[in-house]
Amino acid sequence: MQKIYEQTIGDVLRQTLQECNMTAGLDEQRAIGVWWAMAGDELAGRCGRPSVAKGVMTVPVAAAPLRQELNMNRTKFIKYINDALGKTVIHDIRFK
After folding, report:
1. Whether residue 72 has pLDDT greater than 80
2. Model-level pTM?
3. What count of other Cβ atoms lies within 10 Å of the Cβ of residue 69?
4. Are 78 and 95 in contact (CB under 8 A)?
5. Where are the strands (E) in 1-96, listed by range?
6. Distance CA 77, CA 1 (A)
7. Is residue 17 pLDDT above 70, yes or no?
């Protein structure tokens, strides 16, 4: 007789993501969502779409004064994003 194990869809998805080593990429995409929520509409509108690779978030910023202001608050942004995600995902933010 076959044994049938019941699992929720969420458990199956989490297990699949872990087995396929996709959790890091998913966390990086979640970090981008946290950036948009943290930055707000006004600041996000003045910046380009962020990208994340290997724990480094890159945010395009055209205006030099804004870029300098964001650089001065870089550690606060990193802490906020990682706290929101519940683990260290972002190690550095670069404003270019």
Report:
1. yes
2. 0.78
3. 13
4. no
5. 51-53, 56-59, 92-95
6. 55
7. no
